[in-house]
């Protein structure tokens, strides 16, 4: 009897851990990324492209917005982003060629495959370059223009994700309830066994 109850508790705990783990993964979006050049790195080799690797695939039907500016605000001309077969690594060519010396900040705005917009930036320093300086500072748009159709799709995807999150929460609470109930049963069974032994 005791072994059976212990087995039930173990199963309920495993279910709870699985549900909670799934919920954590579901809420990890593309705000986390790795870059080439690396963030806050000092680069002495020619920089002719930027590379972003995200934790999940990018929804390529939404055009990514990427900018690259130096400390004075002058922007480098960038080409069209391309993706690898996983859809999680984005490469952006620098049309103006190798970057001249200076401190640069690269920024991006994308939409994850689950419909959530994500943005971020990283900085790096170029040294030992003989490339010509960039032109005058050019204002850079901070946010991408999203069409009504794009907005509707993102809202739909977000709603679905929220529904999944609620279901996972309900399952987690159910598993926790099962653990609590099993614990009560164990306590009652042990007390009865002790009382019987005492008699």
UniProtKB/TrEMBL annotation:
GO molecular function: copper ion binding
Entry keyword Nucleotide-binding: no
Chief location bin: other
Cross-referenced Pfam families: CopC
Record-annotated membrane-spanning stretches: 169-190
Residues annotated as domain CopC: 29-126
Any single GO BP term: response to copper ion
Superkingdom assignment: Bacteria
Matching Gene3D superfamilies: 2.60.40.1220
UniProtKB keywords: Copper, Membrane, Metal-binding, Signal, Transmembrane, Transmembrane helix
Subcellular location(s) of the protein: Cell envelope
Family matches, as InterPro entries: CopC/D, CopC_dom, Cu-Rt/internalin_Ig-like, Ig_E-set
Protein name, as recorded: Copper resistance protein C
Species annotation: Aurantimicrobium photophilum
């Amino acid at each position: 009897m005791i072994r059976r109850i212990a087995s039930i508790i173990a199963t309920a705990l495993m279910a709870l851990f699985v549900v909670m783990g799934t919920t954590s993964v579901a809420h990890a979006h593309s705000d986390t990324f790795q870059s080439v050049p690396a963030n806050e790195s000092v680069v002495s080799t020619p920089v002719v492209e930027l590379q972003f690797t995200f934790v999940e695939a990018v929804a390529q039907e939404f055009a990514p917005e990427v900018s690259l500016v130096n400390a004075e605000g002058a922007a480098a001309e960038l080409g069209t982003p391309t993706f690898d077969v996983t859809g999680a690594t984005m490469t952006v060519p620098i049309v103006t060629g190798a970057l001249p010396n200076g401190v640069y900040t690269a920024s991006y705005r994308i939409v994850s495959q689950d419909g959530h917009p994500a943005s971020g930036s990283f900085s790096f320093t170029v040294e030992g370059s003989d490339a010509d300086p960039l032109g005058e500072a050019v204002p850079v748009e901070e946010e991408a223009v999203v069409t009504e159709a794009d907005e509707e799709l993102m809202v739909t995807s977000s709603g679905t994700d929220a529904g999944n999150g609620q279901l996972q929460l309900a399952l987690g609470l159910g598993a926790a309830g099962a653990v609590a109930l099993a614990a009560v049963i164990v306590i009652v069974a042990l007390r009865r066994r002790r009382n019987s032994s005492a008699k």
